[in-house]
Amino acid sequence: MLKAGVLGAGHLGKIHLRLLKESEKYELVGFYDIEEAGGRKLEGELGYKYFNDLDALIAAVDVVDVVTPTLSHFEVGKKTILAGKHLFIEKPITNTVEEAEELVALAKQNNVKGQVGHVERFNPAFTAVAEKIENPMFIEAHRLAEFNPRGTDVPVVLDLMIHDIDAILSVVKSEVKEISASGVSVISETPDIANARIKFENGCVANLTASRISLKNMRKARFFQKDAYISVDFLEKKCEVVKMKDAPEVPGDFDMILQNAEGLKKQIYFDNPQVNPNNAILDELNSFADAIENDTTPIVSLEHGTRALKVAKQIINSF
After folding, report:
1. How many beta carbons lie within 10 A of that of residue 216, not counting itself?
2. 188 with 148: CB under 8 angstroms?
3. Nearest to 120 by CA among 237, 239, 276
4. Which residue from 208, 212, 207 is spatially nearest to 159, judged by alpha carbons?
């Protein structure tokens, strides 16, 4: 088992502490939080060992799980890597692209693994269809959330949209060609609602909308490709795959047949895979342990996190 420590005991940090404690792949050594009073209280209530010294925690573990505010990611990530420890770091990887690129370089130099917490890659609805998404040419994503003061220190692009950016980059096998975007600050000092249009070199276009001032929650993405339409509901953990094939000469009574203006007939059929319920955060943490044990590339590597951040920053700079 890998010895693990958590940096940051806020809302998400507490979830990571609980799941690392439950995991069969980690031994939870303890956690560090800058607020000692809160750390001592959590230690007393739930029994997790509190470290009041960051360096002491890093020295005591094999894996450091960083769940601190984004502005601190680079400093603690660099400290972790230079200590020769493997790094799991919540999204976005860092506050700037330059910081992210430095972490990538340092991880290679120090021969340590790094993974970024883009948890939607482990959403069961997405994993059920990811292999069926082949050369999509149009993508539409909506990620809407009711207002929550937590997270408003960064633009909605880094808070919410970056989830969809990473998921889209994982299935579009092409470089970004052009980005246009708009954003509006309604309640916060940074944009609360944003729309971005990403054009890829291969002709694919992705249209993304994110809002944290919505009256309802929504996390949906739709992928359109030749002879197929794939939808993913990240919130409800549901997916749908609609495919088309040449219609049989003698259609069955219940076959769905479409005919275009040229007389070409296509049959519509559903190919919906099974969605297996899971805890996506636990799965991403366990997958990182597997990457370390098997010396393989993490599913969401530091490089992946850096690429998602680059696109997010391009979107912000387009406002």
Report:
1. 8
2. no
3. 237
4. 212
**What pLDDT is recorded for position 71?**
93
What is the bridge-based pairing of β-strands 50-51 and 26-32? parallel
Nearest by Cα to 102 from 85, 78, 66, 135: 78
Domains (ranges, CATH) in the chain?
A: 2-117+281-298 (3.40.50.720), 121-278+311-317 (3.30.360.10)
Give me the pLDDT at residue 262, please.
Answer: 73
According to DSSP H, which parts of 23-161 are helical? 36-46, 54-59, 73-82, 97-109, 124-129, 156
| Whether this model's pTM surpasses 0.90 | yes
Residues of the chain with pLDDT under 50: none
Write 123-126 long-range contacts (CB < 8 A, 24+).
Answer: 123/232, 123/234, 123/237, 123/280, 124/237, 124/275, 124/276, 124/277, 124/278, 124/280, 125/232, 125/233, 125/234, 125/236, 125/237, 125/238, 125/239, 125/275, 126/167, 126/232, 126/234, 126/239
pLDDT of residue 147: 86
196-202: long-range contacts at Cβ-Cβ below 8 A with a sequence spacing of 24 or more?
196/157, 196/161, 196/315, 196/318, 198/168, 198/311, 198/315, 200/172, 200/174, 200/175, 200/176, 201/174, 201/175, 201/176, 201/177, 202/135, 202/172, 202/173, 202/174
- φ, ψ for residue 221, nearest 5 deg: -140, 145
